[in-house]
């Protein structure tokens, strides 16, 4: 589809390891989502510049028609834009490392977006995301923010409650990645060949239905046969660049499926079904953050440095674009061109899951168009799933209460209620350690 209009996009989190991927996929999509301008915004000038200097070269060589700039000034960043792509990490990897390591100190699973670590990260993200929404509304009132910045479930609950009319859509690529694996398992090209019914919370959900989009064939029986042995691990060429810890995650789906074989789980259920297994298999001194510093961050920043030194990206062999970046570009395209394609959104339930409260934030299929999202009805949640979701979403709501009320006790209740934490005394120890390191980012909790 082509149009006269060309769009202006700002990536908030210009220094993100995913930014070069966004850029490469935006360039690849110029025939369907044409840009006139691309900007980066970050609050760490030095980190952003390392990526931006390489992107400047890439843009000159591959898309000179698009005006490119980068800034730490919010007015410059958010003026004259149609889309904000959110990819910030408040506190960067230094704070992610604490999110993972502090709970482990007390025998509790430590993970980026789940358990106490995920709640700590969510509380850090709320004020930064609300601030970006406010700048977007002030400087580009017609713009849409498509946000990846975690912890999405908590950020989405804060948006629902505190910015109910904002043009912000909180998204996650995990179900897309899982569905792409399902497609590969069934011999299909990509997740685009699959139709689905999925429901849950972010990083906490289940497929009720998976079909071949073209023929309508029910793929659940075939998938279940495969998943009970291999989980969502595909192997071979498909997984040639997948890191070892992701392999373990996709294989673990076999155990998650065995627990509830009527549906197929989001791979993140491992953290709630098997938190003690996570602890037993973790190295408290070397967590996922350390792996990223040694691998993804090294590759991305190393390649940027190499391009800048060479003064060209012509021999650039690195391409970290992929599902993550394709997905956000496809969503911007769907909104820009009012396509009403089916993706997934984290939004107020309002009946999408019939036996959950209207004000629950849920992750469900939705049609994406010029007016934003139209969430779809997914039917009833199973008893097991509903019980789990009620507990988890209450934790997410309590974190937002803690933010609004500056309440230590609400945060302690959130930690205590969480399925990954054994009791209130352990919750308190974790929270007290987290209070110290999060001082620059959290509201003062009293
Ligand atoms: N929703 C999803 O499914 C999904 C998938 C992958 C990654 N993510 C999220 O994407 C984000 C980026 O991940 P990454 O690993 O590339 O992180 P990263 O640490 O490499 O980059 C994040 C950038 O955000 C910047 N930043 C921090 N606070 C900011 C603020 N207040 N304003 C502007 N910039 C700020 C940092 O300086 C840094 O350059 C994270 O939130 C991550 O959890 C989400
Ligand atoms: O440990 P990380 O930073 O590698 O991953 C944490 C994120 O994991 C999911 O995103 C994956 C995505 O599903 C996969 O397809 C590929 O693009 O990598 C992404 C990041 O590694 C999850 O959806 C995110 O919310 C997490 O932040
Ligand atoms: Mn996600």
Strand line-up across the major sheet: 3-2-1-4-5-6
**Structural class given helices, strands, pairing?**
alpha/beta
Low-pLDDT regions: none
Can you give the mean pLDDT?
97
Q: Termini, distance in Å?
A: 54 Å
Largest sheet: 6 strands, parallel
What is the string of helix and strand elements? EHEHEHEHHEHEHEEHHEHHHHHEEEHHH
Radius of gyration: 21 Å
* Heterogens: nicotinamide-adenine-dinucleotide, the ligand O=P(O)(O)OC[C@H]1O[C@H](O[C@H]2[C@H](O)[C@@H](O)[C@@H](O)O[C@@H]2CO)[C@H](O)[C@@H](O)[C@@H]1O, manganese (II) ion
β-strand percent reads 15-25%
Outline type: globular
Number-wise, the strands total 12
Contiguous helical run count: 17
Keywords: Glycosidase, Hydrolase, Manganese, Metal-binding, NAD
Protein name: Maltose-6'-phosphate glucosidase
EC number: 3.2.1.122
Cofactor: NAD(+)
Would you kindly provide a brief summary of this structure?
The protein has 446 residues and is an alpha/beta fold. The protein has helices at 19-28, 45-62, 74-78, 92-105, 115-139, 152-162, 174-185, 220-230, 244-259, 270-273, 275-280, 288-294, 296-310, 323-336, 383-405, 408-417, 424-437, and strands spanning 7-12, 35-41, 67-71, 83-86, 144-147, 168-170, 194-201, 204-212, 264-265, 341-348, 361-369, 372-375. The strands form 3 sheets. It has a 6-stranded parallel beta sheet, sandwiched between helices.
